[in-house]
Amino acid sequence: MKRVIFNQKGGVGKSTIAVNLAAIAAHQGKRTLLIDIDPQCNSSRYVLGAATTEVAPTLGAYFEQMLSFSMFAKEASHYVHTTPFENLSIMVAHPELGDLQSKLESRHKIYKLRDTLKELSQQYDEIFVDTPPAYNFFTQSALIAADTCLIPFDCDDFSRQALYTLINNVKEIKADHNANLSIEGIVVNQFQPRALLPQRLVDELKEEGLPVMENKLSSSIRIRESHERNLPMIHLDRNHKLSQEFLALYGELQAA
Ligand SMILES: Nc1ncnc2c1ncn2[C@@H]1O[C@H](COP(=O)(O)OP(=O)(O)OP(=O)(O)O)[C@@H](O)[C@H]1O
Ligand SMILES: [Mg+2]
């Protein structure tokens, strides 16, 4: 399963959700690969901490080799690294990804990630792709490469507008490039069950027929500790409410 976590709105929980779901999949014995194509490198750092800067080759090198014709292009697995977590591998991002974008675009490299993921999907049961907060070359490449798209949603009105744009973008990619692509679900993050507005928003989205996941994620300050200690929630505190919610969400994805 090749899954992309995408929302062009920033700070809605893409990296947090990608890393925590990947950690759970790996913990449950799935051969799991996390791919960070965001030049901010947040999910790489979440998993690897300070060691991230020492990891090579990165996805910067991977995309760069597409620009220089070589008879000896390296296999995709050359860019995959182990993590401290059993069954969890990673392809790390690099800040230079941002600079490479326009060159990759002008040289029409938009299908390359699809070919790579197809190759890697022979070796991994689950692939999670964390994306930058923009509808750009990298996110389009990821959507073209994926089976499904998971959309984090933070329950505010600006996010709702962004959501409609996003769904149209996904539909366009599906129509033009990837008939296989589906929207797996909208993941409600930092949900406040006692506030009226978020619940009303969620109800309205459901009434519109949008695939809102039943299992929502609460807000917890322990996420900060989880990031700082480079420990996904199930490794930091398995019994924590948010860990249980991530587990339930992963279970829901598996059941579908
Ligand atoms: N469930 C949660 N509870 C508390 N804080 C959260 C939760 N989910 C995310 N956050 C916080 O919100 C911020 C944004 O999260 P994250 O980096 O995962 O979002 P993102 O969509 O990947 O951002 P970007 O668009 O910049 O890549 C982070 O500071 C993170 O700690
Ligand atoms: Mg992010």
From TrEMBL:
<dbReference type="InterPro" id="IPR025669">
    <property type="entry name" value="AAA_dom"/>
</dbReference>
<dbReference type="Pfam" id="PF13614">
    <property type="entry name" value="AAA_31"/>
</dbReference>
<dbReference type="InterPro" id="IPR050678">
    <property type="entry name" value="DNA_Partitioning_ATPase"/>
</dbReference>
<protein>
    <submittedName>
        <fullName>Chromosome partitioning protein</fullName>
    </submittedName>
</protein>
<feature type="domain" description="AAA">
    <location>
        <begin position="4"/>
        <end position="183"/>
    </location>
</feature>
<dbReference type="InterPro" id="IPR027417">
    <property type="entry name" value="P-loop_NTPase"/>
</dbReference>
